[in-house]
Specification:
The structure holds 2 protein chains of 2 kinds. Chain A is mainly alpha-helical. Chain A contains 9 helices and 2 strands. Chain B has a single domain, classed as Orthogonal Bundle (Ammonium transporter fold), CATH 1.10.3430. Chain B is built from 16 helices and no strands. The chains are: A mainly alpha, B mainly alpha.
């Protein structure tokens, strides 16, 4: 399981599994918890975020030389907001049901921390091709996570999946799962499963789940928990 | 908890208090209320109690076997949790509700956080809130078919159980105090008989399993606030009304048996007083100011979450150590 760094496949795998934005980075909690009341809403939110993330990553990566360093955050926000507006109008026109269900959470994609995070941590430093695949991978990881949470919540909380009845007639829906506490419960279970998978894989193969993804130790949330490979590399580079 | 290593030198003076004995005492103390529930609400109430106890014990056993932890079924804590969940059920509830509640309370609230002593929230109350949100119609249908209540409602032909005392009190009208005290009223299986609960509480107090701080500060605060409010609102007989509020609903069960749960209430004396007063204020707000008729379980669960904070504020200082402020001044 050793993939070459910054290649398309590695970026996709990184976004979906290694650094899944929801289950591993715990980013984008607001849409994750609020819009996963049903599988349809979850997939609508996930796909619109994926589209915006991919496009904004491409744009930011192309413009990274033009954007002055001190003005980068406002510039990123302008770029992201433009794409959010486009997606918002498209959704209003073509998927009015999902648009109405998601409501305020579509405009709020502007301040989605996954998009800002990828712009800051990846697209602002790397080339356009890798950035597009990074955005795609992260977006698909986000969509997949939302779909999982949304499906479980909808099936337990309403007895349906994508609006179809999946539970037998005698099943009494457990209402709490489509309310706010259910989001936290299901989310916590998935994070636990993800940790279990990763720890298991690390034990079996000696594979370090973080080794492919380290780019920047200074801004890394896992700094205290890892051996600091990237930090060592940068130190060695500085010596050379 | 029985295999703790003893590190002091001999001879040891042992109190002989074990988790099993404490939990056994609590279960015994809950027996009068359980018997009253069965007498008032009939055989289905007994089945609900047995099913919730059995499913609580079973889920604890199965979870601990699967996760290869030491099996703590014999310390009786799961029995108490299951019994409390059963006592919090309406008499004619479908049986899947208490089963689901026991599984949730034991596995999610208790075992996932590390088992006995590690739970951040009373498992029985966590389960009750879970069920109340999930199955609100089943959990608030207090119609009784069996026992004395069932007979009464059959005799009256119309539903005696149409409104719980709390719903009546919500409108500002009083309720017969004698019925409230004895428990001959619609409600959950274990909460109705204040007398039976007080007998159990006296038993626990005599054994020094619980002390008076939390229940008295809780009920006292609630009493004062309700009395003031009913005076201001100009109810007919404020004192009588306040007594009704105290003996109605889950206040007695909550104050004596659930707020005093060791793992989820503060350890320090001062902390326990703060905890009790906050509980009283919250219950008052839920019952008298908000729209819902009952608020004991939410109040206790809420304060369970604040317990670590209260403990931090009231932590006693070791002898000879000054508080930071004084140290700076000195």
């Amino acid at each position: 399981m050793k993939l070459q760094k910054d290649k398309p496949i590695e970026r996709l795998w990184n976004g979906i599994y290694v650094e899944n934005p929801v289950f591993c980075l715990i980013l984008g909690m607001c849409p994750t918890l609020a819009t996963t009341t049903s599988a349809v809403n979850a997939i609508g939110m996930g796909l619109s975020t994926t589209a915006i993330l991919t496009m904004s990553n491409l744009m930011i990566s192309l413009l990274k030389k033009v954007i002055p360093n001190r003005m980068r955050i406002p510039s990123y926000i302008v770029i992201i907001a433009s794409f959010v507006t486009i997606v918002e109008f498209l959704m209003e026109g073509f998927t009015p049901g999902v648009y109405a269900a998601l409501g305020i959470y579509i405009p709020l994609i502007v301040v989605n921390c996954i998009i800002m995070g990828r712009a800051e941590a990846y697209a602002g430093k790397k080339g356009p091709v890798e950035s597009v695949f990074d955005g795609l991978g992260m977006g698909l990881g986000f969509t997949l996570a939302l779909l999982l949470i949304g499906s479980v919540r909808e099936m337990i909380g309403a007895g349906t999946w994508f609006g179809m009845k999946v539970a037998p007639g005698v099943y009494e829906p457990v209402n709490i799962f489509i309310l706010a506490p259910g989001a936290f419960l299901v989310m916590a279970f998935f994070v636990a499963i993800m940790n279990k998978l990763k720890i298991g894989a690390a034990r079996r193969t000696g594979w370090d789940p973080t080794e492919n993804s380290c780019t920047d130790c200074a801004n890394c949330a896992k700094l205290g928990m890892c051996s600091g490979k990237a930090a060592k590399e940068t130190v060695e580079e500085a010596k050379v | 908890m029985n295999d703790l290593y003893s590190v002091s030198s001999s001879p040891h003076v042992r109190a002989g208090v074990t988790t099993q004995k404490i939990m056994g005492a609590v279960a015994l103390a809950l027996l009068p209320a359980s018997v009253c529930g069965v007498v008032f609400f009939g055989m289905h109430a007994l089945i609900v109690l047995l099913v919730s106890v059995a499913s609580a014990v079973l889920s604890e056993y199965v979870f601990e076997r699967i996760t290869k932890r030491p099996v703590t079924v014999y310390d009786l804590s799961a029995v108490v949790t299951g019994l409390l969940i059963g006592l919090n059920m309406p008499p004619e509830v479908p049986l899947f509700v208490p089963i689901l509640g026991s599984v949730f309370g034991i596995i999610v609230v208790k075992q996932l956080f590390g088992g006995i002593g590690q739970n951040f929230m009373n498992p029985a109350l966590g389960a009750r809130c879970f069920l109340l949100i999930s199955f609100s119609s089943q959990m608030t249908d207090f119609g009784a078919k069996g026992g004395m209540m069932g007979a009464a409602s059959r005799a009256a032909l119309d539903a005696v159980s149409s409104a719980t005392p709390l719903a009546t009190l919500k409108t500002g009208a009083a309720y017969p105090l004698g019925d409230l005290f004895l428990g001959n009223i619609p409600g959950t299986i274990g909460e109705t008989s204040a007398l039976a609960l007080l007998i159990g509480a006296a038993f626990l107090l005599a054994l020094k399993v619980i002390d008076l701080r939390i229940p008295l500060s809780y009920i006292g605060t609630f009493f004062v606030l309700v009395l003031i409010t009913s005076l201001i609102r100009g109810y007919n007989d404020p004192f009588y009304f306040t007594l009704c509020e105290i003996f109605a609903g889950g206040l007695m069960l909550g104050a004596w048996f659930m707020a005093t749960d060791y793992a989820t209430c503060p350890m320090t004396g001062k902390g326990q007083l703060i905890y009790g007063i906050c509980l009283g204020v919250l219950t008052y707000l839920f019952r008298m100011v908000s729209k819902s008729p009952e608020g004991v379980s939410y109040a206790i669960v809420f304060m369970n979450c604040l317990t670590p904070m209260i403990e931090q504020f009231t932590r006693p200082l070791a002898f000879g150590i000054k508080r930071e402020k004084e140290a700076k001044n000195g």
